[in-house]
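New to this. Comment on this protein:
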Amino acid sequence: MAVAAESGCKAVFVGLETVSQHSLDLQAKRFNQVRLYERAVLNLHRHGIAIQAGTMFGLDGDDSGIFERTLRSRGIGIDSATVGLVVPNARHSVLR
């Protein structure tokens, strides 16, 4: 991070994906650990780097509380967010 900051890096886009560890586990995204999000954001900020977080709604493990939990996550210091919606592919849907 120090080298990135020294090179002039002012912001990064990070695919946090979701604040639901259950949803991450269902997607086999074990490298994303919700419990470490706040530490990562603090580390970026300590080096003067802002974070734009990519997050998704509609993952298999999501429930109606995901919106409130995501809003509460703003308290960890994310500077901005890009939100995506997961849309099932009809060709692979079990609902056909």
Summary: The chain has a mean pLDDT of 89. Helices lie at 2-6, 21-26, 37-46, 66-72. The longest helix spans residues 37-46.
